[in-house]
């Protein structure tokens, strides 16, 4: 039987992580947070001061690196990553690392390395993969594909709320600018840009709650069982 893969792509702050995590829990699938892998790669390069525009140096630096995803203990926790066996925790979740991840992820060789790691995990089956290119490039043959979208102002507001809940101070205007800049960078890159797969269901999350989106996705998945 074909391995069961569900992909969820979309821009930053659209609710992908929360929804993917909940969906995986409901179905008994493994959640594959591909963004966490790009963030860990960015951290690894930043730690060693490697210039992203030097593709040769980037490939050399990443070829010996191990990146493992740790299943979150709690449904509300971000994915943690073991980078060369060490937990990175919140270091990959800063606004600075978000932008760095976006820059690093535009390097074709980086995508090549991480896409291969993601497919390896996908081979086990029963995966909810989340990111920017999981439906278009990583798992083009996925059983179900979803593309979540929402107004950028709504997305920035949600992110701000999330950060305030964690006790961080945020400026919503700056956050909106950074979100728009990151989406543009992700959409305009030459390799595996942020894009809806032709066969993906589009769900606008602007006016829907997390649970409403989750139910809409589950309805599609179940209608096929
Ligand atoms: O989803 P998250 O915000 O954690 O992703 C961080 C960055 O990693 C994105 O802005 C994007 O540049 C990159 N990314 C990617 N392809 C993916 C997942 C993430 O290029 N499949």
Automatic annotation (TrEMBL):
Q: What is its EC number?
A: 2.7.4.25
Annotated ranges, domain Cytidylate kinase: 6-222
Q: Which example biological process does GO assign this protein? A: pyrimidine nucleotide metabolic process
Taxonomy, superkingdom: Bacteria
Q: Entry's InterPro entries?
A: Cytidylate_kin, Cytidylate_kinase_dom, P-loop_NTPase
Gene Ontology annotations for the cellular component aspect, listed alphabetically: cytoplasm
UniProt entry keywords in alphabetical sequence: ATP-binding, Cytoplasm, Kinase, Nucleotide-binding, Transferase
Reaction equation(s) it catalyzes = dCMP + ATP = dCDP + ADP; CMP + ATP = CDP + ADP
Q: Where does ATP bind?
A: 10-18
Reply yes or no: does the keyword Coiled coil apply: no
The record's section on Gene3D superfamilies has: P-loop containing nucleotide triphosphate hydrolases
Named from the GO MF annotations, one term is: CMP kinase activity
Compartments reported by the entry: Cytoplasm
CDD domains per the record? Answer: CMPK
Family label: Belongs to the cytidylate kinase family. Type 1 subfamily.
Q: What is this protein called?
A: Cytidylate kinase
What organism does the record attribute this protein to? Desulfofustis glycolicus DSM 9705
């Amino acid at each position: 039987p074909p391995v069961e893969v569900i992909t969820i792509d979309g821009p930053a702050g659209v609710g992908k992580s929360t929804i993917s995590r909940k969906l995986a829990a409901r179905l008994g699938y493994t959640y594959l947070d591909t963004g966490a892998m790009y963030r860990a790669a960015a951290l690894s390069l930043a730690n060693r001061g490697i210039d992203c525009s030097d593709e040769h140096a980037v490939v050399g630096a990443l070829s010996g690196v191990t990146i493992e995803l740790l299943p979150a203990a709690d449904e509300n926790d971000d994915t943690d990553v073991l980078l060369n066996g060490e937990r990175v925790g919140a270091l990959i979740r800063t606004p600075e690392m978000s932008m760095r991840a976006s820059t690093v992820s535009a390097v074709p060789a980086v995508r090549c390395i991480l896409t291969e790691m993601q497919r390896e995990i996908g081979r086990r089956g029963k995966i909810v993969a989340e990111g920017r290119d999981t439906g278009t490039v990583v798992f083009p043959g996925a059983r179900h594909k979803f593309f979540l979208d929402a107004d950028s102002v709504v997305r920035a507001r949600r992110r701000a709320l999330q950060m305030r809940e964690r006790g961080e101070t945020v400026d919503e205007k700056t956050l909106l600018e950074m979100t728009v800049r990151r989406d543009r960078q992700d959409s305009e890159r030459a390799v595996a840009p942020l894009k809806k797969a032709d066969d993906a269901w589009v769900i606008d999350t602007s006016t829907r709650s997390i649970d409403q989106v989750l139910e809409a996705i589950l309805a599609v998945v179940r209608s096929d069982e």
